[in-house]
Design brief:
The chain is α+β, with helices and mostly antiparallel strands and 188 residues long. The chain has one domain. The protein is 32% helix and 22% strand. Strands 2-3-1-4-5-6 form a 6-stranded antiparallel sheet. α3 runs antiparallel to α4. The chain is globular, with a radius of gyration of 17 Å. The chain starts with a helix and ends in a 22-residue tail after the last helix. InterPro entries: PspAB-like.
């Protein structure tokens, strides 16, 4: 950041810590002790940009992760216009899923699209059989739980319970107003 940027109050957005995702398998173990089970579904959400370079990068990512019999990746756009790359592993291996998500994130960042990254999700089934996602916010470097209910309501008590379970495993977002609802996220 330059001198004039600091004088004018402009700041450079923080770099995403992509390696923070590797703490999720430990959080999954903590969740497993309370009956949460991984579904094998995870996603990367980002703001799409126009142009062939972005489309080419997405195609290369899909090919990279699927190499050697890896899981297929599905690309979708949600109703808010954000792009999701969703990985589905049939073995529900959280470590493998996190590695796949990291590969997607790293590929996007290496191609110059790191500032477009919004969040990653790892989906679990709660003991109540409802879906719940552990969401990683790139710009904050923190995680939070998201437990959707029907009719775009969320299960706040379940989210707070999960916060307590994972607090020693991952950096939990302390500002509850940043626990954004990700309605329609793949796997939820």
């Amino acid at each position: 950041m330059g001198f004039f940027d600091s004088l004018l109050g402009r700041s450079k957005p923080p770099e995403a810590d992509l390696n923070a995702l590797f703490a999720v398998p430990q959080a999954a173990l903590s969740l497993g002790t309370e009956g949460f089970t991984p579904t094998g579904v995870g996603g990367v959400c980002y703001r799409p940009t126009e142009g062939g370079a972005f489309s080419d990068t997405e195609a290369q990512i899909k090919q990279l992760v699927a190499t050697g019999g890896g899981p297929a990746i599905e690309g979708t756009t949600d109703r808010f216009g954000f792009r999701w790359l969703t990985v589905t592993r049939t073995d529900a291996d959280v470590s493998g899923l996190v590695t796949d998500l990291h590969a997607i994130n790293s590929s996007l960042a290496d191609a110059g699209f790191g500032s477009a990254l919004l969040c990653s999700t790892v989906v679990f089934t709660a003991p109540t059989k409802k879906p719940m996602a552990l969401v990683y916010l790139y710009k904050r470097g923190t995680f939070y739980p998201f437990a959707p209910e029907t009719d775009e309501r969320r299960d706040n008590s379940l989210e707070l319970q999960v916060r307590g379970l994972i607090a020693n495993d991952v950096a939990v977002e302390p500002d509850l107003s940043r626990w954004l609802a990700i309605w329609g996220a793949p796997g939820l």
